[in-house]
Amino acid sequence: MPRVLSVLFAAVLACAVVPAAAVPAAAAVPGAAAAPAADTPGRTFVAVSVATVWTSPDSPRDRDRAAVAAPADPAAWMGSMSSADRRELTTASRTQTQALLGAPVTVTERRDGWAHVVVPGQPSGKDDRGYPGWVPASQLVDDPAFGALAAGAPTGTVDGVATAWLYRDPARTERLREVSVGTRLPVVGEAGDAVRVALPGGDQAWLAAGELRGGAPPSPTGEGLVATARLFLDRPYLWGGRSGFGPDCSGLTGLSYALHGITVGRDASDQARGGRPVDDPADLRPGDLLFWNSPATHVAMYAGAGTMIEAFDADTPVRGSPVRFDAEYSGARRYLP
Description:
The chain has helices at about 5-15, 65-70, 75-80, 85-90, 145-150, 220-230, 250-260, 270, and strands at about 35, 45, 50-55, 95-100, 105-110, 115-120, 130-135, 140, 155-160, 165, 175-180, 185-190, 195-200, 205-210, 210-215, 260-265, 275-280, 290, 300-305, 305-310, 320, 330-335. The chain has about 325 residues and is α+β, with helices and mostly antiparallel strands. The strands form 7 sheets. Strands 17-22-18-19-20-21 form a 6-stranded antiparallel β-sheet. Mean pLDDT is about 90; it is low at about 1-40.
């Protein structure tokens, strides 16, 4: 049995004997919210590789068709935009956040082909239930059976790569769609070095076993968080982005933490209110979050040796750089023990 599935099935056995309250590592992290229970059956799920959550149904432009299509093509969308196009998303505040394939959402309203949703697992001062915004209804599927499967089957999370391909066949010759790091799906089979996963809506797909992490996240460490953040290096900046195709500043840090079982606020201002303060720059550790302005409007992850990883702006790909202890620097927060 491939290692990924042996880990997954071992996790299922472990869940049968370990009290549920003892499982989430995030619950013990000071200042961090416990990650939403992955084994809670849901109803409505993201059915495209990345669903962009828009400020309003009128927010998408003609050039954003690849983002609002079903299926969506986030790679084509990112590749089609110039820096000016991405910058206009920021200045007009068109995009809010993103949710990945298989993620549950709560629909609060439906209107003219659009659904107003809140995204659990992305805490926000805007809504106690999760991050709010609008998604094309065609990118969602009501599928209680998928929720029940996700509750009972072992799950796997795309990890170690910024994006991965799903395939129609175990030989991985027919591409189906490209998905982001952090995508979490029920595992229903295996063949050689390929793993079969269930998709919302009743379909199935295959991906390379080496691109799927089975079981619970590893115990979080600063070095592990930095290694995850490095997956985003050189990816384009996207206002509201929270995927391996292109993040914004808090999307990068938030998704990196989520991959290690820790839920932090979606926006920089929310992340700056969690954790514990690190008052002395000499005490910074890898994985700490650095903030600028008050209230915070920018966040980066400390990477050690006076450096950080950040999604800076629409003109700059995700980069590593020296920490800027300038007039706008407003402090650091630690979410790890």
